[in-house]
Amino acid sequence: MTQTWDPKAYGQNGAFVHELAGGVLDWLAAQPGENILDLGCGDGQLSKRVAAGGALVLGVDSSSEMVSAAWSQGVSAEQASAEQLPFPDATFDAVFSNAALHWVRGQNAMMAEVRRVLKPRGRFVAEMGGHGNIAAIRVALMAVLGRYGHAGDEDGVNYYPTPDRYRRRLEENGFKVQRMVLIPRPTPLAAGGMDGWLRTFRRGVFEGLPEELRETVVAETSALLAPVLRDEEGNWVADYVRLRFIATA
């Protein structure tokens, strides 16, 4: 499954991604004049916040739709995969990423590229989904997909590592990990609720289903999740867990 993105839907149902990024931005501590790569920049909202402090920010994203959305925000961005970055060696003082690394299939290739484009002792600062992220959502979705003969469609969509495993992986790829934490973060969803979340963040899964089945899977997954993730007033809270780290090349 390859995830695809609709910037409009992302803006409506995924604004919490950049709204809750204050912690990782504090860890980045971007300085005026620094060259910073925003890896998986999405629609450019965080790139703008980093650049507002005087850093020179370039975004990169695998989605052409998201790159266009970033440009519309005034963010310079290029389309490329994280595993093959189109930049010279030792270009950036820091590589920053928020809510993107768990979508990367080739983790070792991505880390090698990040280390290559960083200047010596440059920093890699990121927040991603960690072990246990959206566990309830994934179990419910897999159960419903299984009813209709699509049990494997959710397999491998994302990578949610433990801190110990990701620390070892970074170290195996030449990084020195300065700090890493796993953060449970129950996250209120937008007005679209679980239906909107599924249509946005599992768009690739649903595009792989027969069209007549898609709304059924959304409805049945939301119904399974309502007793544990929806309160009595109808508000949805997703079971997010984030892994945040800073490492140096």
Quick tags:
single chain; 249 residues; alpha/beta; Rossmann fold; 7-stranded mixed sheet; 7 strands
In short:
With 249 residues, this protein is an alpha/beta fold. The chain has helices spanning 7-13, 16-19, 22-28, 45-51, 64-72, 107-117, 135-147, 163-172, 193-201, 203-207, 211-229; strands at 35-39, 56-61, 77-79, 92-98, 118-129, 176-188, 237-248.
3D architecture notes:
By secondary structure, this protein is of the alpha/beta class. The chain has a domain at 7-134 and 159-189 and 239-248: Vaccinia Virus protein VP39 (Rossmann fold). It has eleven helices and seven strands. A seven-stranded mixed sheet has the order 3-2-1-4-5-7-6, sandwiched between helices. Helix 4 (45-51) links the parallel strand 1 and strand 2 (56-61). Helix 1 (7-13) packs antiparallel against helix 9 (193-201), helix 7 (135-147) crosses helix 11 and helix 9 packs across helix 11 (211-229). The radius of gyration is 18 Å and the shape is globular. The model has no long low-confidence stretch (mean pLDDT 94).
Oligomerization:
single chain
So, the CATH homologous superfamily of the domain at 7-134 and 159-189 and 239-248? Vaccinia Virus protein VP39
Order of helices and strands: HHHEHEHEEHEHHEHHHE
Q: What is CATH's topology name of the domain at 7-134 and 159-189 and 239-248? A: Rossmann fold
Distance between the termini: 32 Å
Q: What percentage of residues falls in helices of 4 or more residues?
A: 40-55%
CATH architectural label of the domain at 7-134 and 159-189 and 239-248: 3-Layer(aba) Sandwich
Per CATH, the class of the domain at 7-134 and 159-189 and 239-248 reads Alpha Beta
Biggest pleated-sheet summary: 7 strands, mixed
Radius of gyration: 18 Å
Low-confidence stretches: none
Number of strands: 7
How do the strands of the widest beta sheet line up side by side? 3-2-1-4-5-7-6
Averaged pLDDT, please?
94
* Mass-distribution shape: globular
Helix- and strand-based class? alpha/beta
Number of helices: 11
Strand fraction equals 15-25%
